[in-house]
Amino acid sequence: MYVAVKGGERAIRNAHQRLAERRRGDPATAELELNQIREQLGLAVDRVMSEGSLYAPELAALALKQARGDSVEAAFLLRVYRNTLPRFGYSEPLETARMAVERRISGAFKDLPGGQLLGATADYTHRLLDFSLAEARALDSQLVAPADEAPKGGTSDGGTSNGGPDGSAGPAAPTAASSETAAGAAVPRALDLLGDETLIETPPDADDGPVPDITREPPLFPAGRAQRLQTLARGDEGFLVGLAYSSQRGYGNTHPFVGELRQGRVSVEFTPEELGFAVEIGEVELSEMETINQFQGDAEQPPRFTRGYGLAFGRAERKALAMALLDRALRAEELGEEKSSPAQDEEFVLEHADNILSTGFLEHLKLPHHVDFQSERELLRALRKAWDERRRQAREAAE
Amino acid sequence: MSVLAQADAAELNRLWEALGERVAHRPLRRPEVGLVQLRGRIGGSGAPFNLGEAPVTRCSLIVEGERIGHAYVLGRAPAHAETAALLDGLLQDPARRPRLLEAVIEPLRAARRARAEARRRDAESTRVDFFTLVRGEAST
Amino acid sequence: MSGLVQDPATAGGEASGGLLRPGFAEPALDAQRCFRTLLSAMAHPGRIHALDVAIEPPARLMPGSAALCLTLLDAETPLWLDAACADEEARAYLRFHCGCPLVDDSRAAAFGLVGGALPPLGDFAPGDDLAPEDSATVIWQVEALEDEGPLRLSGPGIDGIRALGLAPLPGHFLEERARGHAAFPAGVDLILVAGSRLVGLPRSTRIETAGEG
Fold first, then answer.
1. What DSSP state is assigned to residue A208?
2. Interface check B6 vs A, CB under 8 A
3. Does C18 reside within a domain?
4. 85-114 in chain B: CB under 8 A from chain A
């Protein structure tokens, strides 16, 4: 017993050494620097922040380096780091209405007050491998000057007609609306257009009650919408996308439009207890998604649109969209819809969305279970012996 | 405090060092990293919910034995928080304040504005112009 | 705050009125040492422990209770102060170093800090059977703690019976403790502090007077 433990220690220490070597790779290759990860693998960094539930780009880059690019392991590292820190408090609610938008699109409205900004997007590329990226090279600017923008006319979808395969789009002459998108100025919400016509529900009002925090009180079911959104915001992107897709395919009936997607920077305000007033402490990049979904109406309520909401750290629009679809699907009961699909099952979605929980329980199977297994094996042997005995007796009785 | 917190750490350090001042200070609270739970609003404007946390560094210094400078800075940024707390303390000194506003705060504010403006211009170049389409539909 | 700049002239807040005393010299290490001592005190109810930490508390707080506050309190632990503790200096000190909200309603407090007569323990949250951890912990500054005296303690963490002397000893104390004991696992935990010495009296400890049992 003693020897086995010593052997285990040495083997584990050596395994860690091998891990460090694997992480480093071929020493002839330049070592990755954190700012390279942060600047050039930004979406990986954002995903780790989102699923690690910690907005810290430098630390997420470090976690990715340490985890050799494994985003789940990197998010796990952020969660553990987070556990070592004291909690100073809660921020003032982030005012996404005052976001300095760098990307803002709507699938539902073509004439969005404030306009649509494609931002840096791969939506209109052909997804062909760009072999020129295989070589380090300077970035040449291929922005189309305003004069080159000629009305293409005729097509009904301005988004794809303006975007070339190189992802550039012609800038329009500045309009009155464009000045509203400067940092700190309010950008009107697309969905408020429908609100004016009472065709869409309004978001739930703020009450003064406490805001539940799943990192302090694990949710009991049925959970509230705030707990659902918090859980989804840290949920695994793959799990969320798969479930959201299932709801589009008929398992949950979300039938969504993208009312508005916006990405950009939002100021963070915090009120320290000793100061007693709010101060700006920095900025975060966020992706916010509002979907528009159908609602049949009932005897009390006229037919109208309903909303789904997604908000995620960084540039995470796929996640924000999946989150909005699931937010809406999970409101089935509230809206009196039949609850028949996994995406509508609150406990199923929330209890399995967190990849750190799920991977922990899954992967612990790799650790020694020798005693558990031995006891099961002995149990099975006893059962088998009894079974054999019964068979023997049955055979004897038959003879 | 907000301008100091929002500043680029290297920029802040450069402007402060350029002043060449030596100021006596002692810690009331050394730079300390903790968490703030960031809140969003349901639907962007409704009831609040907890979105996820962020590390925040805070620091408080007793500056020249008589003023307390505070700093709260998003991120894990002990040096940034310390310089910001020192300047917050100095800015409470009426004799020093005008020069500091001119030499540090205004340049930081201008730099932040310039960064935001550059980002806005970049985004603006990707504006999708629907006005021709509106005219086209209006004529039918 | 909508503008980009908070006027730095106001940034000192109330704390800059009179200069605050510093907290722990080594926040992490000092808090860990105090916590370890407190852990031992709660594990051995009635045994007198000494906190080994140099601290310059506000005038109304004892070194031991200030150190416990710095160790235990943060933004998520509302604190109720009795009138004997609650002057401006103490309030600013606790608000700054602990970041804890100060509440007027003792039922809403996670911790109580008592420098005068012990209020009825029923004034503090006892938690309930489902969430006994929602109970309050009361730090009570007393004049003297002795390892001999009229109190006889028994229960988990005590091998047999342990004697304890404390002054002042309010008349309602034993009766209330006995009543609180019946509500176990709910109940209020007490930490008694004299100077930098302390004694833990968790809810599970039975307290009687000499000759009773």
1. S
2. yes
3. no
4. 113
Give the least confident one: A35-44, A124-133, C79-88, C173-182. C173-182
Q: Is the peptide bond before C185 cis (omega within 30 degrees of 0)?
A: yes
Q: Provide the sign of the torsion angle of the four alpha carbons A352, A354, A355, A357, taken in this order.
A: negative
- Give the nearest chain B residue to A117 (CA atoms): B127
User: For B58, left (φ over 0), alpha (ψ -120 to 50), or beta?
Assistant: beta
Residues sharing a CB contact under 8 Å with residue B122, sequence separation 6 or more, in sequence order: A102
Q: For residue C6, list chain A residues with Cβ-Cβ distance below 8 A.
A: 277, 279-280
Q: Does A208 touch chain C (CB under 8 A)?
A: no
- Show me where the domains of chain A are located: 2-83, 96-120+159-353
C17 close to B (CB below 8 A): no
C209 to chain A nearest CA, in Å? Answer: 40
Other chains touching C, judged by 3 or more CB pairs under 8 Å: A, B
Would you state the structure tokens that stand for residue A280, as one six-digit string? 């700006």
Give the up-direction half-sphere exposure of residue B103: CA atoms within 13 A in the CB hemisphere.
Answer: 17
* Per-residue pLDDT tens over the stretch C120-173: 999 999 999 999 999 999 999 999 999 999 999 999 999 999 999 998 888 888
**Residue C93 φ then ψ, to 5°:** -60, -50
Cβ atoms of A286 and A312 within 8 Å: the answer is yes
Number of domains in chain B: 1
Counted domains in chain C: 1
Mean per-residue pLDDT for A303-325? 95
- CA-CA distance, A117 to A159, in Å (whole number)? 10
Q: What is the CATH number of the domain that holds C136?
A: 3.40.50.11310
- What mean pLDDT is reported for chain B? 91
Question: Does residue A275 sit at the C interface (CB-CB below 8 Å)?
Answer: yes
- The reported pTM is 0.85
| Segment (H or E) for B38 | strand B25-41
The alpha-carbon gap from B54 to the nearest alpha carbon of chain A, in Å, equals: 5
pLDDT above 70 covers what percent of chain C?
90
In 3D, which of C142, C91, C137 has the Cα closest to residue C117? C142
Interface test with C, best of A273, A279, A281 (most C CBs within 10 A): A273
Chain A interface includes B120 (CB < 8 A): yes
Say which residue, A109 or A156, is predicted with more confidence.
Answer: A109
The complex's ipTM? 0.91
Q: Is residue C141 part of a domain?
A: yes
Q: Which domain holds residue B111?
A: 2-41+49-121
Chain B residue at shortest CA distance from A277:
B1
Q: What is the largest CA-CA distance in chain A?
A: 101
Phi-psi region of B64 (alpha: psi -120 to 50; beta: other; left: phi over 0): left
Contacts of B119 in chain A (CB under 8 A): 100, 102, 183, 264-265
- Cβ contacts of B133 on chain A, cutoff 8 Å: 110, 156, 158
